[in-house]
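Please go through the sequence and fold tokens given here and tell me how the chain folds. Record follows.
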Amino acid sequence: MSEQRLAGKIAIVTGAGQGIGLGIAERFTREGAHVVVAEINRETVYTAAEHLSSLGREAMAYPMDVGDLDQIDQMVRDVVARFGRIDILINNAGLSNKASFFELTPEIWDTLQRVNQRGLFFCLQAVARQMVAQIPDEVKQAGRADRSYGKIINLSSIAGRRGRADALHYSVSKSAVITITQGAALALAPYNINVNAICPSVVPTQMWVNLDKAMGEANGLPPGEWYRRRVERIPLKRPGTVEEVAALTTFLASSDGDYITAQTYNLDGGSELN
């Protein structure tokens, strides 16, 4: 790339050990950012950071559980101790599982909300607190800023746009991400910290492999058939790609997105119209 839009920025990407998170982290690295790989999977967190470092920017492996508030606070302290500041947060870590309406239990519900909703918000809050602390006192006292002092992007899902009978708990968690994005954006607007969200549709990652297996078994379909039918319902007749999610995320994280906040973008080939 001739111009690195994130040159020198410090970015935390949660769930960056694989899939969409890793794709975003790789794009950020190529755009000049130093990336913190915040990932619960200890097998992928180090290999991901090693891969990113090989691209020419310092990457930090940080094994952690975003559902644990103490670990979130410690991560913020450790990242600041190493890099001096935080410029970007990508709230990507999340859980997904299938459970029909009558199969849902408090345990299934709480396990998923702990990460997708509670963990996402408190990670956002902790990083936003650090971003505000980095702003000059005169800017904070003025209650307005003439440039962006941080970018926060939350990964929701088109499942958050309406209820899903076979994944109600998941759609609730992703709907909450949209509301959290809007509220946080308004709370952080006086500091010119931008908060936005992205709702991907079908993106061929391990999550969709698992979903195809579960839904195929539930509906008596051979492997790959449920996924094929799901893609066929997309107006553009194809799934999205990790690279396309990373491209939109990079736009919002760069100075190109400085006047955008409190918005949620569908990245879904026309599946949702709101």
About this structure: The two ends are 33 Å apart (CA to CA).
